[in-house]
From TrEMBL:
Species classification: Eukaryota, Metazoa, Chordata, Craniata, Vertebrata
CC annotations in GO: cell surface; endoplasmic reticulum membrane; Golgi membrane; postsynaptic membrane
Protein name (record): Calsyntenin-3
Annotated ranges, domain Cadherin: 13-113, 114-233
One protein family per Pfam: Cadherin
Species of the source: Takifugu rubripes
Keyword terms: Calcium, Cell adhesion, Cell membrane, Endoplasmic reticulum, Glycoprotein, Golgi apparatus, Membrane, Postsynaptic cell membrane, Repeat, Signal, Synapse, Transmembrane, Transmembrane helix
Keyword Repeat: yes
Protein's gene: clstn3
Length: 902
């Protein structure tokens, strides 16, 4: 028995000696134990003699036996007689007998569960043969006590049952709405009826009826500008309802059609983007906005665009732009870079489909050009044909065979906007489509193509026909290979080709889809993002890895002031299963990303006083007078900050570095008179910075993406100049700036320019008469008094102000007073002559033949009393402390030539 040292032998241990039963002879004196196969005999067991005469013996262990340590033992035993005397001399030994000892087990251990908690989840509404299996172990060595005879659920009233093997099943269909989670306890018994030391907990979660598809989809995702990258699907996972799949592919599509062509670039124009990307200057715009100087695009219909660019529509028949010869003459040479935005179709125009047998589509020419190359001509034409883009190039019109470069591109016929950059450095030609390089296949071809023109010509949207009169007089009906679709930003820059980094920058997207961390991408997973970052594709074969990868898809926006609005979002999934017939089919998910309104920047113009007073001769100088010499432009960003002390929101303003794209100086009131006044700008500074300027009589506009410091330098160089003798009283100007194509505008800075005139020059009689005519006819000369008028929304309208009315009243009152004074002087003079009886004329006698009165017209209140010679003269003024130049000066020149001033 376990934990005992007595060995019960079967049969019992006896040793017999055939000698006569004499003393010593025939007696058994001892037993010896020898090692058996297990080698434990002499160590653990011993044998003793109980009766010498009968030879009965006993086997016992030196220490109590442990069944769990060793269940069976084997050894040999041998008997010895007593020999011929008490000393055992000449003793004899028996043969060896083998002893097998089996230790009987004692049920000293209780069952122990392998896990203390078992969890499982099952869909509702079904009966399962096994939901989860529990397992307990017993440390006893015998099958009787080491085996678990049965399990038992000790929690009452649960809809579950357990069998003797530990399998748990439900006894009735489960309902997740009634009870989502079931928790109960189970125990185990061994065959010796020992109960488990500790019971095990079982948790069964009831899942709703399994519907394959994406779980955790959020239809609306909000993005706060300035947040960098945010995950689009943080809680999304795919449920296949235990269907075995071996390939999963998900396509995430972010629609950016709200921003016009391509992707958002801080809402800058194509020309501004070229400047920001460091492109080489000198490009020629082949499709400029219609204007008197660029009238070849006036007949082309335009479409509204969300960005600042102008989109031209070509209908494939009569919409053709003929570039003038002066523009074409600037595009000489066989090294050039042609860039454009293209979209096949557009509006009601459908793109041409790929040619099929019996239905061959005609080529559509985008650009057809012949330019001078030294003493010869080079001809090229860029065309589309189905889903192919081709460039025909003649290095010399006298060459027999032109070279054809051909590209097969899906972007040509997908009815989406794409950016093309074609760098020609013959014989090398490089094509970039959306910033990605595509290699052409060189083909020498003699196909039916238009012959080169005998002189420099360039058409947009078609190519010339073969009629001889076509070269001198262009008719749209004679054009061939007309283009169907939309074009924008078509430019050619002669000379060296653009670097690859510049081309990538021109198309670089500032917002789009991205993947969070490629290092976390599981094995077997693939991710691909298109150049415009509007489509992201995930592919894998493991559900868990795929779910983790989907949660790493992010939306990235590096714009300082992101364009607010809604971006539609789509998720399309395709599965491939081992059993294709029963494979799951998932519907497309649709949502939208909302970019919230960013904190608007404040563009502040300061450093210019409301008044600028200078002597009139300074404005008549060759350089005029600087209007904004101390102009300062500051851009700040205001945002709400919670104040913990008061629990309120306060506005914080941070100065930021900005890029302006336009400023305008506008005269208020009537437009500038080009014969008398003009605004001057330092053109060297403008050209050095690559800015554009429009200088008219109504305004002067400076455009182009540049830093604030550059705009400050340019605006400080704006000067106002008057022609000689163009006397004015004042002139008002308004200055404003903007960035991101007018999306954010500055405050309007108004400057009133005052002209200081000297009294001797200003108030000559003829000058006074001219001034009175101006006052009496404000409708014809309102611009000269525009400082006293109220601004009107219409640029050319003038409304008289309060100051004008006061001046007119004062002048009228003063004229009346002068007339009354003259009559009074004459009457006093006649009375004096009558009283003196024809006295002689003296030097003090008043003579009004040379009377001159000079009056300050700005003085409102004046009381004048003038008396003749010999009477007291009185001058009453208001205010009393008026200065000399505010008084009425009467100048009298007598017959003796002496002048007297009063």
């Amino acid at each position: 028995m376990e934990n005992d040292n007595t060995v019960l032998l079967n049969p019992p241990l006896f040793a017999l000696d055939k000698d006569a039963p004499l003393h010593y002879a025939g007696e058994i004196c001892g037993f010896r134990v020898h090692n058996g196969p297990s080698g434990s005999g002499t160590v653990q067991f011993e044998a003793v003699v109980l009766d010498r005469s009968t030879g009965e013996g006993l086997v016992r262990s030196k220490e109590p036996l442990d069944c769990e340590n060793q269940r069976e033992h084997s050894f040999t035993i041998q008997a010895y007689d007593c020999g011929e005397g008490p000393d055992g001399a000449n003793s004899k030994k028996s043969h060896k007998a083998t002893v097998h000892v089996r230790v009987n087990d004692v049920n000293e251990f209780s069952p122990v569960f392998v896990e203390r908690r078992y969890e499982a989840s099952v869909p509702e509404g079904r009966l399962f043969d096994r939901i989860v299996r529990v397992e307990a172990l017993d440390a006893d060595c015998s099958p009787q006590y080491s085996q678990i005879c049965f399990y038992d659920i000790i929690t009452p009233n649960v809809p579950f049952a357990i069998d003797n093997d530990g399998n748990i099943k439900n006894t009735e269909p489960l309902d997740s709405k009634h009870q989502r989670v079931h928790t109960f306890w189970v125990t185990a018994f061994d065959c010796g009826k020992n109960r488990a030391q500790a019971d095990a907990q079982v948790v069964v979660t009831v899942k709703p009826s399994c519907k394959p598809g994406w779980m955790g989809w959020t239809k609306r995702v909000e993005y706060t500008p300035g947040s960098g990258s945010i995950p689009l699907f943080p809680g999304l996972h795919l449920e296949t309802c235990e269907e075995t799949v071996w390939n999963i592919q998900a396509t995430v599509e972010l629609q950016t059609g709200h921003i016009g062509k391509g992707c958002d670039r801080d809402s800058y124009s194509d020309r501004s983007v070229r400047r920001l990307c460091g492109a080489v200057r000198g490009e020629v715009d082949l499709l400029p906005p219609p204007s008197p100087a660029a009238n070849w695009t006036s007949a082309l219909p335009t479409l509204p665009s969300s960005d600042s660019s102008l989109v031209f529509s070509f209908n494939g028949s009569n919409h053709v732009a003929v570039v003038p010869d002066p523009v074409v003459s600037a595009l000489s040479g066989d090294h050039f870079t042609l860039q454009l935005w293209m979209r096949r179709g557009g509006g009601n125009i459908q793109p041409a489909t790929a040619p099929t047998r019996g239905n061959r589509k005609e080529e559509e020419t985008i650009v057809c050009s012949t330019v001078r190359n030294d003493d010869s001509f080079s001809h090229y034409s860029l065309s589309v044909h189905g889903c192919r883009l081709s460039l025909f190039y003649w290095p010399d019109v006298a060459a027999a065979r032109p070279v054809k470069f051909l590209w097969k591109l899906e972007q040509v016929c997908d009815s989406e906007w794409h950016h093309l950059s074609l760098s020609v450095q013959f014989p090398s030609v490089t094509l970039y489509v959306d910033g990605v390089t595509f290699d052409p296949a060189l083909i020498h071809d003699n196909g039916a193509i238009p012959n080169p023109a005998p002189r420099q010509r360039m058409f947009i949207g078609a190519c010339w026909g073969n009629n001889s009169h076509f070269y001198s007089l262009f008719l749209a009906s004679d054009a061939v290979s007309s283009y169907h679709g939309l074009l924008s930003g078509v430019t050619v820059r002669p000379g060296s080709v653009e670097p690859h980094s510049v081309v990538e920058c021109l198309y670089a997207c500032r917002e789009g889809l991205d993947f969070g961390d490629l290092e976390t991408l599981g094995s077997g997973m693939k991710v691909h993002v298109n150049p415009s970052q509007s489509v992201l594709v995930l592919e894998g074969d493991d559900i868990e890895s795929f779910n983790r990868a989907v949660q790493q898809v992010t939306y990235r926006n590096s714009l300082r002031f992101a364009t607010p609005g809604v971006r539609p979002l789509k998720l399309t999934t395709s599965l491939r299963c081992f059993n294709e017939e029963s494979c799951l089919s998932l519907k497309q998910l649709e949502g939208y990303l909302v970019v919230l309104q960013p904190d608007a920047p404040q563009i502040s113009l300061s450093g210019v006083g409301p008044h600028l007073a200078r002597p009139a001769p300074e404005f008549e100088g060759p350089r005029g007078v600087s209007l904004f010499p101390e102009l300062r432009i500051v851009c700040s960003l205001s945002h709400a900050v919670n104040t913990a002390a008061q629990g309120m929101e306060a506005l914080m303003s941070d100065a930021v570095a900005h890029t302006l794209d336009g400023c305008e100086v506008q005269p208020l009131g009537e437009e500038l008179n080009p014969e008398r006044e003009e605004l001057l700008v330092d053109m060297d500074v403008v050209r050095e910075r690559g800015l554009e300027i429009i200088n008219t009589t109504a305004y002067i506009a400076i455009t182009g993406a540049e830093s604030i410091s550059v705009y400050e330098d340019v605006l400080r160089s704006v000067r106002y100049r008057l022609a000689k003798g163009s006397a004015r009283f004042e002139r008002r100007f308004r200055l404003s700036c903007s960035e991101m194509n007018g999306r954010y505008t500055s405050n309007e800075l108004t400057l009133e320019v005052n002209f200081l005139h000297s009294l001797d020059n200003l108030y000559h009689p003829s000058h006074l008469l001219a001034s009175q005519q101006q006052f009496l006819h404000p409708s014809h000369h309102a611009g000269e008094l525009s400082g006293h008028t109220l601004p009107n929304p219409h640029r050319n309208s003038v409304v008289p102000g309060a100051a004008t009315v006061i001046i007119m009243v004062c002048v009228g009152f003063l004229v009346v007073m002068v007339i009354l004074g003259v009559f009074r002087i004459r009457s006093i003079h006649r009375r004096g002559e009558g009283a003196r009886g024809g006295s002689k004329d003296g030097s003090g006698q008043w003579d009004d033949s040379a009377l001159t009165i000079i009056v300050n017209p700005m003085e409102v209140k004046s009381d004048v009393t003038i008396k003749g010679e010999g009477e007291e003269e009185e001058v009453a003024e208001s205010p009393e402390d008026a200065s000399d130049d505010q008084r009425i000066i009467v100048k009298k020149e007598g017959r003796d030539g002496a002048a007297r001033r009063y």
